[in-house]
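Hi D.,

Good news: the full-assembly prediction came through. Inputs first.
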Amino acid sequence: MPVDLYQKYGLSEKEVTEWAKTKYPQFLKNKTVLAQLYLKQVRKVQLTDEDIAIMRGPVKKINELKPGQWVIIEAVVGPKLRENSYNGCPICFKKLEGEFCEICGKVEPIVCWFDSYVVGDNTGDIIATFGPKLANSRKSFEGTVLRLRGVLGDQGEFLVNAIEPLEEGRKELVEKKAEVDAQAEVNLVKEIFEKFPVLRYEDLQKWHSSRGLSTNLDELLAKAPLFKWPDGTVRKEAPTSTSPVAPQLLLIQEEVEKMKKVLEMFPEVDLDSLKIYYTQEKFKTPLEALLKAAGCVIDDKGKVRKVS
Ligand SMILES: [Zn+2]
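Then the structure:
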């Protein structure tokens, strides 16, 4: 367990929190980091290795992470999702406007980086953000198996402050577990289809990239199994010429509006004519669903009418 800095240096939580409120509002839940910053910046204390306790802390699984708790996770690093840079202090990496750092004095600013990766263990995936201390080397961590020390931030990302390669034996274990993870991704997509049996492929793509899943979407769908339909949707059933549609899930509001307008102009249009228009406009929402949403019925003469 990390040393209790409050006890060791006689700090009161109140004074540290008060000081941090304006300076580090993002770390308020993390008493240890606040104490470290406060000791360094306000009391000008030279912290010992023990005070910093880089790779110490309980080892946790990804699904056990709680905001503000410093822990170690053992995980496989997946694809890099994004990178951000800013001009910062070469010593403390604080973001700078000019050449003056309020902690370190006059400095020559450098480009500082934040890289975010998907990392996973057998309990789940999370986005892990590597700060300038690790990311400024511009080394890619993709595909490595690491012990990562960090804290779950308010945005649900794991903020990494130190890493250590994992010993060979444990590495294999984590890698094996990551394979199990691929199955977890398949289960995840299956669960979604339990709730929403019909989804648009393009929405699934957005969901897939926002979740940063490591298995590609088509592979996941094939494993589930789920089927891509010619109308751009994905469903649990394989497409057949007589498959019924599930209207309410496929509505595209723009298309409903467009259809309403047409039906206002032609209040008694033939279904056949409407079908030609429907095909020409390359609507994605099934016609039946569109008509229903536009408040129309097909009468016994094959005319589409609005019911008000
Ligand atoms: Zn600085």
